[in-house]
Write a structure and sequence with these properties.
The complex is a heterotrimer. Chain A is α+β, with helices and mostly antiparallel strands. Chain A is 26% helix and 30% strand. Chain A has a single domain, classed as 4-Layer Sandwich (Glutamine Phosphoribosylpyrophosphate, subunit 1, domain 1). Chain A is globular, with a radius of gyration of 18 Å. The relative contact order of chain A is 0.20. The termini of chain B are far apart. Chain B is globular, with a radius of gyration of 20 Å. In chain B, the strands form two sheets. Chain B has a five-stranded antiparallel β-sheet. Chain B has a five-stranded antiparallel β-sheet with strand order 3-4-5-6-7. Chain B contains six helices and ten strands. Classes of the chains: A alpha+beta, B alpha+beta, C alpha+beta. Chains in contact: A-B, A-C, B-C. At the A-C interface, helix 2 of A face strand 5 and helix 1 of C.
Chain lengths: 237, 273, 262
């Protein structure tokens, strides 16, 4: 229960900039594509699982129902993108470029930490012009599997698991309750699929199929669950 | 030098007909006559040492004209040659380390640091308007990502190599010969005992002191101060000065060793007679 | 796009509006209060480990008490990304000082004292607000003053700088919500000769009350201290016990035959 003046709507609900838009999409310009999204990553002992829905929308029109929001930054480093599709694509392109350059200069695979740091620098220094919430995850020989969350303002926080995008607000309780430390690869993958399918079922801006990516020293295994065989929904209760 | 004086030694932008760049060779000459700089890679860290000649009796030697500098938490360099040229390199090395950390959020790997320094030094050998650096740089660094320590040396020509032990300046040849006798190169270990047979930094400090004093001739050479730093397990891989008491103790030990060796030589000679 | 040294943009992008650009800037990822108090052997700082995202308690294990060098500590509230970049900046300066110091021997050099860091931070914050692009933080700086020769003095230092570059010193300080709720309590209990245990208990009590009354606070906290000889120590995050068993809380209040209540 909340007892304060904030309960009275501050903004006229008919105002164009706000109508029918969530906190993460209301900043979009008319016509700008948004990955009103559910994304997630869990690190386990020898790697990470990344997971995302596939819906890209413009307002309430589904512009792409089977997009891929899990992008590769380096051999063993990936990221989940949320926010503006244009912004996050540009960001991943830059980080991919810098990491490739660094790998050549140092002659060794870059750390996940470095990828997250680059992403954060770009997000922080251009925060006025960007709409990007990114989860960076991957495997490196120094730290093993790791996950970093880079939310809107360009902070960078390392965490055992991360969820993001508009749909994530619906599954915080579920994931908080089901997550445990030192999960196995299969446990982590199952939790990702379950949580993201629940978010997709309640968040209008998330939906379609689930894409997953399991990153370990051995390599990357991409997975796919079609929209009619999800662990839960889209209909549900 | 066959072609010197024929105009090919005026700038580093032109090769001589026999394929040499004299300005670089002259820059190397400048280093050859400067105080000896030594670097030793030991089992548990790196030791740097420089013989700093005391040009004047009234010099405040403790705080001025330093030859060993810290570049990053886990990286230090020793310079010899034109000290002012060396300081320019030190400044650049710090910028490289700082920029790398700011950009990537991890410490600069030793090899990258050495390469960046050598690229900078090399740049000054390319243009007619520039003068090559008359300084050689020894780079000691630790990489927290790989947990390895390493020693590199960048010469006035801009080349850099990694070493188990290296020396620059006056007396570098005999110094290298002395270093080859130390067990610092795991590939040359006879017992095949691996790293455990290599000397540690404590021993390294003593041995470097011994080398410096072996090469020193009090009757010919200027008085000098021995500057030493290390970067090892015991310092949590930070680059710091070797405690002064430790340097004096090593110096005492070195002098005694040298004296004893000389006495033995004298005895041998007497026996022969 | 460059990765230049230039500090970042404003706390959030401006909202689109019909007439010109509204520079509505507000923080996105925020930390709440920082508390600080001088005591017998130094300065004690306290803060919780929550970083909120709007009203969502998003990051529950984020550190806001950060050592800058061997004798200076900062604690920050407000925009977390700005705090990270301020801390990066101060640490970079500290490293540069270390590298360019006169002596190879750490014990012969003096790192920047807290008062210098605080003055510098004031200039940074004022500069940014003058560009209409503030760093959205209130930052507490703790440590010791220094003697004329640069050695650490016996006198503890405690100062704060806010997002527009206002800076002042005091014996007790609190930022954010703590300024309203904790500061009066701390002023009441404060004595310059408090022992560490006493000062620590005071800070924990205040953090607990803030957890009860601040929607953006958490009971997972950290305490940090700067002492003259022990230098800087930051605790690992730990959880405070809370109390919910007052009679009036336990007994039903909203049933029939009661006076109602909230």
């Amino acid at each position: 229960m909340s007892y304060n003046a904030a309960m009275i709507p501050r903004q006229n609900p008919l105002d164009d900039a706000y109508a029918g838009k969530s906190a993460e999409t209301r900043h979009l310009k008319p016509g700008e594509l948004s990955t009103g999204t559910t994304i997630m990553a869990i690190s386990f002992s020898s790697g990470v699982v990344l997971c995302a829905d596939s819906r890209v929308s413009t307002g309430s029109y589904v512009a792409n129902r089977a997009s891929d929001k899990i992008s590769q930054l380096h051999d063993h480093i990936w990221c989940c993108r949320s926010g503006s599709a244009a912004d996050t694509q540009a960001l991943t392109d830059y980080v991919r470029h810098y990491l490739a350059q660094l790998a050549v200069e140092t002659g060794r695979p870059p750390e996940v930490k470095v990828a997250a740091h680059l992403m954060r620098r770009l997000c922080y220094e251009n925060k006025d012009h960007l709409m990007a919430g990114v989860i960076v995850g991957g495997w490196d020989p120094v730290s093993g599997g790791s996950v970093y969350n880079i939310p809107l303002g360009g902070a960078c926080i390392s965490m055992p698991f991360a969820i993001g995008g508009s749909g994530s607000t619906y599954i915080y309780g579920l994931v908080d309750s089901e997550f445990k430390e030192n999960m196995t690869r299969d446990e982590a993958l199952a939790l990702c699929k379950k949580a993201v399918s629940h978010a997709m079922a309640r968040d209008g801006s998330s939906g379609g199929i689930i894409r997953t990516c399991v990153v370990t020293e051995e390599g990357n295994v991409k997975g796919y669950i079609s929209g009619n065989t999800l662990p839960y929904g889209p209909a549900g209760w | 030098m066959a072609s010197s004086g024929s105009g090919y030694d005026l700038s580093s932008s032109t090769f001589s007909p026999d394929g040499r760049i004299f300005q670089i060779e002259y820059a190397s000459k400048a280093v050859e006559n400067a105080g000896t700089a030594l670097g030793l890679r030991c089992r548990d860290g790196i030791v740097l040492a420089v013989e700093k000649p005391l040009q004047h009796k009234m010099l405040v030697s403790k705080t001025t004209g330093r030859r060993i500098h810290t570049v990053d938490e886990h990286a230090g360099v020793a310079i010899t040659g034109f000290v002012s040229d060396g300081r320019q390199i030190v400044g650049r090395a710090r910028d490289e380390a700082s920029n790398y950390f700011e950009t990537y959020g991890t410490k600069i790997p030793a090899e990258v640091l050495a390469n960046r320094i050598s690229a900078y030094v090399h740049y000054f050998t390319l243009h007619g308007a520039l003068r090559p650096f008359g300084a050689t740089t020894l780079v000691a660094a630790y990489d927290p990502a790989t947990k390895e320590h390493s020693l590199h040396m960048v010469e006035p020509s801009g080349v850099s190599y990694e070493y188990y032990g290296c020396a620059a300046g006056r007396g570098r040849q005999p110094a290298r010969t002395e270093m080859e006798k130390l067990s610092i190169n795991p590939k040359h270990q006879q017992g095949g005992g691996g790293d455990m047979e290599l000397i540690d930094v404590q021993e390294g400090v003593k041995q470097l002191a011994k080398i410096v004093y072996t090469l020193y001739d009090a009757s010919k050479d200027k008085p000098f101060e021995l500057e030493m730093s290390w970067l090892c397990e015991a310092t949590e891989w930070k680059h710091v000065g070797v405690p002064r008491e430790f340097i004096s103790a090593a110096t005492e030990w070195a002098k005694k060793e040298i004296e004893e060796a000389e006495e033995e030589d004298d005895d041998d000679e007497e026996m022969e007679e | 796009m460059s990765l230049s040294l230039q500090a970042g943009g404003s706390a959030t992008r401006a909202l689109p509006s019909a007439a010109g650009t509204t520079h509505t800037t507000s923080p996105i990822t925020t930390g709440t209060s920082v508390l600080a108090v001088k005591y017998r052997s130094g300065v004690l700082l306290a803060a919780d480990t929550l970083v909120s995202y709007g009203s969502m308690a998003k990051f529950k294990n984020a550190r806001r008490l950060l050592p800058i060098n061997s004798r200076t500590l900062i604690g920050g509230s407000g925009e977390y990304s700005d705090l990270q970049s301020v801390s990066d900046l101060l640490k970079r300066n500290a490293l540069e000082d270390k590298c360019t110091a006169d002596s190879l021997y750490e014990e012969e050099n003096n790192e920047e004292c807290a008062k210098e860091v605080w003055s510098y931070l004031r200039a940074v914050m004022y500069n940014r607000r003058s560009k209409m692009n503030p760093l959205w933080n209130d930052i507490v700086v703790a440590g010791f003053k220094q003697n004329d020769d640069g050695t650490t003095s016996d006198e503890p230092f405690l100062g704060v700088v806010d997002k527009i570059g206002t800076a002042y010193e005091d014996d007790v300080l609190a930022t954010g919500f703590g300024g309203y709720i904790a500061l009066p309590l701390m002023r009441e209990k404060y004595r310059p000769d408090m022992e560490e245990g006493e000062a620590r208990a005071l800070l924990e009590d205040c953090l607990r009350i803030l957890f009860y009354r601040d929607c953006r606070a958490l009971n997972r906290v950290q305490i940090a201290k700067v002492t003259r000889e022990g230098k800087v120590l930051v605790s690992e995050p730990y959880e405070l016990d809370t109390f919910w068993d007052f009679k009036g809380f336990v007994d039903t209040k909203a049933g029939l035959g009661t006076d109602g209540g909230w």
